[in-house]
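Hello again,

I reread your note about wanting to compare the complex against the isolated chains. To keep things tidy I'm splitting this into two emails, and this first one only covers the full assembly. Below are the input lines as submitted, including protein chains and any nucleic acid or small-molecule components. They are followed by the predicted structure of everything together. The single-chain runs will come separately.
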Amino acid sequence: MTYTYTYPHPAVTADIVVFSVEDDRLKILLIRRKEDPFQGQWALPGGFVGIDESIDDCALRELEEETGLSGIYLEQLYTFGTPDRDPRERVISVAYFALTPMTGLTLKHGSDAMDAQWHDIDAQPELAFDHGAIIRLARERLTAKLDYSTVGLKFMPAEFTLSDVQSLYETVSGQARDKRNFRKWILSLDILEETGRKKSDGAHRPAMLYTLKTPAEIRMIK
Amino acid sequence: MTYTYTYPHPAVTADIVVFSVEDDRLKILLIRRKEDPFQGQWALPGGFVGIDESIDDCALRELEEETGLSGIYLEQLYTFGTPDRDPRERVISVAYFALTPMTGLTLKHGSDAMDAQWHDIDAQPELAFDHGAIIRLARERLTAKLDYSTVGLKFMPAEFTLSDVQSLYETVSGQARDKRNFRKWILSLDILEETGRKKSDGAHRPAMLYTLKTPAEIRMIK
DNA sequence: TCCGTTAGTGTTTTAATAACACTAACTAGT
DNA sequence: ACTAGTTAGTGTTATTAAAACACTAACGGA
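Full-complex prediction:
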């Protein structure tokens, strides 16, 4: 089966930069390519947009197929379209960025598909295509959005402590924050709710667990 | 000549929302379609991405071809890709937004190409495709960026007064600003330079003319 | 020369942000 | 059972940034 057009068409892919946080380090999810071009190299999860599929749906589907992740937060980032970014044919990539808590995730790993693996943001392997540039832009956007939206809470699991949130913000932005001011600020946004339960994991005072009042919502700040 | 692929490819267009300001009103540039689909209706300038052309270049070229504008400020906005947005075939649109001063522009008008015409943002005709939604998003982005970047100055001609700038900001954001605070603020950004010349256009005190220190630069604020 | 109109200029008040140090609650080790 | 170690939790003051506010200057036209 072939498809014929009266003028040339580019291929279009969706590629996803998935961020998460573990052990106070920002991580991204990469897959190892098992086919040419760039066989064996690390790349962003992603793939070609189906002809009857929205780009958003494509991103969700490819992420599920290649990494096993589903139901996580996705946002369109930017479209990369220089003519020579893929050696095979003209490929335009609609890049997404995604945030997920690390807790309770299981990656497709060593399966028939590709290996998916978390990598420290500051210790990336060499990447296929222009995926390095895509990741740089995604990281810029992430740190920027942390300041003017509540998107950062997408890194949090269902229940979390205020110290968890502060440590997250410090990890992603790379700068320490005053404890009292941070807690005043995050609570003033009026998006968190005490659960009544507490988390005790060690020889110290247990911390109150919070949830998001409306988990789906992302508020713009200021 | 035809082009054949082993799996179906979407078409990709670049479409541009060009904003300008005239008589204290925000305007957008539309063209009247002379071909189906949506023949005779108004639409955004734009067209198909050449197979060896970057998307940015396509946006610049189409804008020039369809409206006569060149060398104006362009920024990628968002990529629209729901499967049914064009009745002919699957078309993915990479939307741009553009800002230009109105002074000294001449549009292609009634030529062999399409009619290009400025429309008040709040008095748009019915639009082809999903271009109405694209314009809404572009406007949101414009008002947002006005607050956290100096992109608004792309509306200004080579020389302008501080009152011109204030009136621009009031027009785009829709809210009045205190004169003294506005002037303190815009000067504190350290991006304007007195020319020494003054503009006198009426029976009142002439105003100092300013230029941008570095016209190409766009600063993020705060 | 008077009137209408827009340009230009500082100070005070108010609100937001940043700095800062101790007590509480728990566990593990003695 | 008490001590040491560790993280949670809490208000007040100082500093900085933003908002409010009214008059004089310069010009052209009547």
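For quick reference: The mean pLDDT of chain B is 96.

B.
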